[in-house]
C-alpha cells in the first residue's frame, strides 16, 4: 500500500471540523481597514443538511464610495479551517490593503462534517468531497456523494451569496486535500464557470487516479491554475504526492497559465497551506509570476 495515502485518509477530519455557528446574517464587523465577516446559514436540499457559509467582505466594501462596485468572488472548501488554520481573512486583508491584489470577496463553505446533522465528521466530510471512492479510506465509502457537489455549489451556494452581495462573474474555487479533489472535480464538470483554480495537496490518487485521467480529456481550463505541494506529505518520502501534482501540471499547462509550487520539507497540514497561500493568491488574482521557491518573507 502506498504510504502517504493512509495518512491522507486519517486526516479527513483534522482541524476542518468544529462547532457549527448557526448564525444568519452578520457578525460584529472588524474595522473597515481589515474587512468584515458575515455568516450565512444554508439549508441544502442537495445534501439534506444545514451548514454555515462564511463570507469575508474586503476593506471598503461597505463604504458609500463603493456602493456601485461589483466584486470578484473566491470560494474555498473547508470553510472553518480556511478562516482559522489558514487565516484567509488576515492574509487577504494584508494583500488588499498593500495593493497586491484587487479587493475580492472570499467565501468559506463549511464541509459536511461541520453541518448540524453530522454524526461522523470525518466520514461526512469525505462523503461530500469524494466524487469517487478512496480505496484507502477506513471505514470505506463505496458510493460517496461528491458527484453532487457541483450541483450543490452552483444551485445553492452561489445563488445564496450572489443574492446578498455585489458580485460579478469572475469566480475562483479552491481546496486542500479532499477539498482540492472536489474543487478540481467541480471545475472539470463546469469548465466555463471559473476563472481561477487553487489546489493544495490534492489527493489525486483516489480511485486509481481517476481525476488525472479525467483531466487529460479536458480541453478548457480556468484562466489561471495554482497547485501547491510539499515533499514530506505522508509517512513516506513524499515523492508520490510530488509525482501526482507534476502529472497534473503537465496535463494543464498546455491549456492555461499554471503554477506548481513544491516546497521542500512541507507537510500535509494547515501550516504548510497557510505559508503558500499569499503566493497562490498573488499568482491567481494579480497575474504574478510563479515563484521557483517559497520563503517565509512572503507571509
Characteristic key phrases:
21% strand; 9 helices; Rossmann fold; alpha/beta
Describe the structure.
- By secondary structure, this protein is an alpha/beta fold.
- The chain has one domain: 3-Layer(aba) Sandwich (Rossmann fold).
- Helices cover 34% and strands 21% of the residues.
- It is built from nine helices and nine strands.
- The chain has helices at residues 3-10, 79-84, 88-97, 121-129, 149-164, 178-189, 206-217, 239-252, 270-285, and strands spanning 25-26, 36-44, 49-57, 71-77, 104-109, 167-176, 196-200, 224-230, 257-263.
- The protein has a nine-stranded mixed sheet, sandwiched between helices.
- It starts with a helix and ends in a 14-residue tail after the last helix.
Tell me the count of domains.
1
Roughly what is the average pLDDT, rounded to an integer? 88
Helix percent reads 25-40%
The CATH top-level class label: Alpha Beta
Radius of gyration: 18 Å
Major sheet = 9 strands, mixed
Q: Quickly give the structural class.
A: alpha/beta
Cα(first) to Cα(last) distance is 36 Å
Instruction: Give the total of beta strands.
Output: 9
Q: Per the principal axes of the C-alpha atoms, what is the gross shape?
A: globular
* Strand order within the widest beta sheet: 1-2-3-5-4-6-7-8-9
Work out the strand percent.
15-25%
Please render the helix and strand layout as text.
Layout: H1 3-10, E1 25-26, E2 36-44, E3 49-57, E4 71-77, H2 79-84, H3 88-97, E5 104-109, H4 121-129, H5 149-164, E6 167-176, H6 178-189, E7 196-200, H7 206-217, E8 224-230, H8 239-252, E9 257-263, H9 270-285
Parallel strand pairs: 4-5, 4-6, 6-7, 7-8, 8-9
Antiparallel strand pairs: 1-2, 2-3, 3-5
Amino acid at each position: 500500500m502506498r504510504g502517504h495515502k493512509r495518512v491522507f485518509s486519517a486526516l479527513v477530519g483534522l482541524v476542518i471540523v468544529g462547532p457549527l455557528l448557526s448564525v444568519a446574517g452578520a457578525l460584529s464587523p472588524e474595522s473597515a481597514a481589515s474587512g468584515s465577516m458575515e455568516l450565512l446559514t444554508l439549508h441544502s436540499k442537495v445534501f439534506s443538511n444545514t451548514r454555515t457559509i462564511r463570507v469575508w467582505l474586503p476593506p471598503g466594501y461597505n463604504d458609500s464610495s463603493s456602493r456601485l462596485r461589483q466584486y470578484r468572488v473566491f470560494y474555498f472548501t473547508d470553510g472553518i479551517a480556511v478562516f482559522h488554520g489558514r487565516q484567509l481573512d488576515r492574509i487577504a486583508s494584508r494583500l488588499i490593503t498593500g495593493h497586491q491584489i484587487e479587493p475580492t470577496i472570499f467565501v468559506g463553505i463549511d464541509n459536511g462534517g461541520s453541518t448540524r446533522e453530522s454524526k461522523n465528521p470525518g466520514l461526512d466530510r469525505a462523503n461530500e468531497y469524494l466524487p469517487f471512492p478512496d480505496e484507502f479510506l477506513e471505514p470505506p465509502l463505496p458510493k460517496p456523494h461528491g458527484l453532487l457537489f457541483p450541483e450543490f455549489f452552483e444551485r445553492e451556494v452561489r445563488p445564496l451569496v450572489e443574492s446578498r452581495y455585489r458580485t460579478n462573474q469572475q469566480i475562483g474555487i479552491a481546496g486542500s486535500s479532499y477539498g482540492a479533489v472536489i474543487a478540481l472535480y467541480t471545475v472539470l464538470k463546469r469548465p466555463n464557470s471559473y476563472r481561477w483554480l487553487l489546489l493544495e495537496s490534492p489527493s489525486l490518487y483516489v480511485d486509481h487516479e481517476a481525476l488525472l485521467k479525467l483531466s487529460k480529456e479536458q480541453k478548457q481550463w480556468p484562466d489561471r491554475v495554482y497547485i501547491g505541494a510539499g515533499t514530506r506529505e505522508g509517512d513516506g518520502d513524499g515523492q508520490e504526492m510530488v509525482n501526482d501534482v507534476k502529472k497534473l501540471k503537465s496535463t494543464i499547462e498546455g491549456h492555461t497559465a499554471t503554477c506548481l509550487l513544491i516546497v521542500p520539507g512541507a507537510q500535509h497540514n494547515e501550516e504548510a497551506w497557510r505559508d503558500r497561500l499569499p503566493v497562490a493568491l498573488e499568482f491567481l488574482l494579480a497575474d504574478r509570476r510563479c515563484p521557483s521557491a517559497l520563503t517565509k518573507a512572503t507571509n
